[in-house]
Automatic annotation (TrEMBL):
It comes from the Bacteria. It comes from Actinoplanes digitatis. It is found in: Cell inner membrane; Cell membrane. Keywords: Cell inner membrane, Cell membrane, Hydrolase, Membrane, Methyltransferase, Multifunctional enzyme, Protease, Transferase, Transmembrane, Transmembrane helix. The chain crosses the membrane at residues 6-25, 103-122, 128-146, 153-173, 193-219, 231-249. It is a multi-pass membrane protein. GO terms for cellular component: plasma membrane. It holds the Pfam family Peptidase_A24. This is Prepilin leader peptidase/N-methyltransferase. Residues 12-95 form the Prepilin peptidase A24 N-terminal domain. One of its GO terms (molecular function) is methyltransferase activity. Plays an essential role in type IV pili and type II pseudopili formation by proteolytically removing the leader sequence from substrate proteins and subsequently monomethylating the alpha-amino group of the newly exposed N-terminal phenylalanine. Belongs to the peptidase A24 family.
Length: 261
């Protein structure tokens, strides 16, 4: 498949998935059905018309307000849709028409949902995290067997175990929540599938990003030393930094340790 065609298809898919993620982000923390009722205004309960359900364009057409009661509609809805499409395009550009592409597209969708839910309610729901293990295995095991063989799977499982041990130890001393411990092996599996460099970069980047944001929040007095800050978004951001940039970062770091003549 030509790369341009793949990118176009994935962009449209990302918009549609982003629209669904808005439902997931709103309803899963509330233990509500993702199917019933259909999309509706949370203020007046009026059903969203089909023409207003078009990702991004629907919000623009409505000028950010409900068609019935004129209550404001958060700009986060079109941003999630556009952001999902953008991340899907980036993943497609990275992996191309490969067997691994569906797995990392799924991870992108899950990452957006989990990051925003964690920011909203400081929780990483089991309803999303735990089934993602089965999806990862179902998509990446065939991708490995149809590619270079079982080595990426073995490495992924080892990385999953390593990150679980690390986060479990941190949780024992009160440094991590239970949701973070459950998410860590999933990210370890995806990063381990790519290589140990990705595991190292993704694992380190999570703490670097989380620490940097924490310092900024305390410096601006938006948070204190005892404030709870969700760590899931930084784990996910670190993982995707590794997905996209582990190789150049590893090469750069190696060049510092072993300078060329």
């Amino acid at each position: 498949m030509p790369q341009a065609l793949l990118i176009g298809i994935v962009a449209l898919l990302g918009l549609a998935v982003g629209s669904f993620l808005n439902v997931v982000i709103h309803r899963v923390p509330r233990d509500e059905s993702l199917v019933r009722p259909g999309s509706h205004c949370p203020q007046c309960g009026a059903a969203v018309r089909n023409r207003h359900n078009v990702p991004v364009l629907g919000w623009l057409l409505l000028r950010g307000r409900c068609a019935d009661c004129r209550a404001p509609i958060s700009i986060r809805y079109p941003l999630v849709e556009a952001g999902t499409a953008a991340l899907f395009v980036a993943v497609a550009a990275k992996f191309g028409p490969s067997w691994a592409l569906p797995a990392y597209l799924y991870l992108a969708a899950v990452a957006i949902a989990l990051a925003l839910i964690d920011l909203d309610v400081m929780r990483l729901p089991n309803a999303i995290v735990l089934p993602s293990y089965l999806v990862a295995l179902a998509l990446l095991v065939p991708a490995a067997l149809l590619g270079d063989g079982p080595a990426p799977i073995v490495r992924g499982l080892a990385a999953a175990a390593l990150l679980w041990l690390l986060y479990r130890a941190l949780a024992h001393f009160g440094g991590m929540g239970g949701g973070d411990v459950k998410l860590a092996p999933l990210l370890g599996f995806y990063l381990g599938w790519l290589g140990w460099g990705a595991v190292a970069i993704g694992g380190f980047a999570a703490f670097l990003l989380g620490g940097a944001v924490g310092v900024v929040l305390m410096a601006t007095r938006l948070a204190g030393r005892k404030s709870r800050i969700p760590f899931g978004p930084y784990m996910l951001a670190g993982a995707f930094l590794a997905v996209f940039a582990a190789a150049p970062i590893t090469d750069w770091y190696t060049s510092l340790l072993i300078p060329t003549a």
